[in-house]
Amino acid sequence: MLQHSAHFIIMNQTGRDPKLWEQGCKDDPVRNQVVLPDLIECLDRLRPTLIGDVGSGTGYLSRAAALHYAYPAHWFLLERDPRMLQFSSEICATKDGLEVVDYDLVNPAQEWDRPLDLAFSCFSSLDFGMTTAIAGNLERLLRRDRATISFSKVLDCMSAGQYSYRAVEDILADKTAAAVHSFVIVHDTRRVLSFRCGRFFPRTDPLYGRRTIGLGGAVSAKQVDLLFESMFGIVASAIDELCSGIGLPRRLAERARYGGEIKPWFGVHSSRTDHSPTTLHMVLSYRCPAEFTPTKAALSVNDLRWIDPSTMPNCLEDYDTTSQFLLSQEYVRDLVRQAT
Ligand SMILES: C[S@@+](CC[C@H](N)C(=O)[O-])C[C@H]1O[C@@H](n2cnc3c(N)ncnc32)[C@H](O)[C@@H]1O
Question: Which residue has the higher pLDDT, 307 or 151?
Fold first, then answer.
């Protein structure tokens, strides 16, 4: 262990060499036998979806932890050293869900706009210290709203058997129950698709009669599919809605299904009304392929429009509550920025 400490200190004097640092991480018993198991235990307990590794260095710890984490997640590796950034970017380029970001925690050049469910750092606070100001900067990385729930937490409840497939009338009658609906946002590199749910839409759905940016509906037992990760039917429900609502052709639907093109994001709670039960909108995203132009394929879907999520729509109150939340909290703007 002493040898390891000496090794890291020498690197510090000349600027850290990413290759040597990576080798040091691989050989380090503290990272591998103490920190990594601790981090995995914490991930399994908290089930975060958006995770930040602050002062990630070569990204060794995140890459290792991501291999053990079985839930949908996106990892941001925040680092300011250009050599570390270059090294980890090259490794992470071939890995799904790991994104290296040039970010200085002490003097951030811009507001962090992808609120995290979990932020951690491994030995990095030795570099940047921990003053009240830095603790505040760390806190600003985290999700502040209370309206969302991570996708993995919901899947966790389902894996534990805390769900059943019931008629909507039963759910309406039971004030302690919530319906689970898919809510897929179709976007390109600048815009998201919006439309109005007309009177052919089920009246018990919170989207009935509203303008929305989410295509979806109740998740049913028949949508559970063992041939791909349908997430208890949530992803399959989203694909069904893309086909029936806006005419996604079968070939693209199959590609979306087996190619993992429907990305889970998080759940948003929508309050019960006289007609609709409490609903958990499981928000997913789908990047519209260039060869596909959405059309009005169902009687219930009207007035399709692409909107720019970086300017608030004039008639925000016209939208359903989940769309209002996602647009006003700029989640959708960030989604589209990320796709650019
Ligand atoms: C001791 S190393 C740890 C690296 C990595 N977490 C690990 O376990 O191997 C600290 C890392 O924090 C980074 N760092 C230092 N100050 C930082 C800051 N203000 N913002 C972002 N990263 C910083 C350094 O460049 C370095 O890569």
Answer: 307
CATH number at residue 210: 3.90.79.10
Residue 307: C-alpha distances to residues 16, 228, 264, 265, 300 (Å): 46, 32, 21, 20, 20
Q: What is the pTM of this model?
A: 0.63
Domain enclosing residue 243, as ranges: 148-339
334 lies in the same domain as 214:
yes
Position in ligand 1 atom list of the atom nearest CA 81: 25
Closest residue (by CA) to atom 16 of ligand 1? 128
Any residues with CB less than 8 A from the CB of 153 and at least 6 apart, and which? 47, 267
| Residue minimizing CA distance to atom 11 of ligand 1 | 55
Residues 177 and 320 in one domain: yes
Does residue 268 sit in the same domain as residue 124? no
CATH number of the domain that residue 57 is part of: 3.40.50.150
Q: Which of 97, 121, 139 is the last residue of a domain?
A: 139
Q: When comparing pLDDT for 330 and 301, which is higher?
A: 301
pLDDT tens by residue, 106-127: 999 988 878 888 999 999 999 9
Q: Which atom of ligand 1 is nearest to the CA of 124?
A: 10
Total domains, the chain: 2
Nearest CA to ligand 1 atom 22: 55
pLDDT-derived band at 48, boundaries 50, 70, 90: confident
Q: What is the pLDDT of residues 256-286, one digit of tens each?
A: 998 989 998 889 998 888 889 999 999 999 9
Ligand 1 atom nearest the C-alpha of 61 is: 8
**Ligand 1 pocket test, candidate residues 53, 121, 127, 137, most atoms within 8 A of CB:** 127
Q: Where are the alpha helices (DSSP H) in the chain?
A: 2-14, 18-27, 29-30, 36-46, 60-68, 82-92, 125-128, 132-139, 151-159, 168-173, 234-246, 250-258, 321-328, 331-339
